[in-house]
Amino acid sequence: MKRADRLYALMTRLRDGSLHRAEDLATALGVSVRTIYRDMDTLAASGVPVAGARGAGYTAHASITLPPLNLTQTELEALHLGLAAVGAGTLPDLASAAAALSAKIDAVLPEDAGAAPGRFGFATYPFAEAAQGFRHMPAFRAAIRARQKLRIALIGEAAAHAVRPLHIDYWGRIWTGIVWDEDTGDFASLRIDRIAELSPLPGLFVDEPGKRLADYQAR
pTM to 2 decimals? Predict the structure, then answer.
């Protein structure tokens, strides 16, 4: 059973209001008692109201439980952007709720075999930086669709660059823009949250051999 499925199965069992022994849960789900202990710690850390302790049994009382959802990478990106904007806001209650929701999502994200588990929200990618990148995301996306050249200045760099925006990539809570840099005559990968200024340049660009997204991907 996948970790995400197991965590949801645990939540479903716990919300019946009964006290469940770790040994019984382990037998029912086909895992070790130690795995159940780790899963309970994960659920509690993600904001699920788990009550109980090792050796005593567990239960939980949640006000709302959602069924499993299948998200595309773009949908996950949209969700993270929304949480980034709320988490960087000035309303403490909503910022706290965004943090809790981020932790719950992190608890059920799939893990790749042999890879260290990533974090969805606050832990490795502060919401303040994500929100900063969010400011430029619509304009960058629009320029990709329109084939509009951009002048981009990055934080900490004195010179701005004229670029052809080609693609946006999502790498574990970091959005990068793939561009053809007219000034260096080469491809570049720019972190969207590191853009200080972005402005459209006159004229559109057309695909040219050696300067296309396919050429970048072929590398």
Answer: 0.48
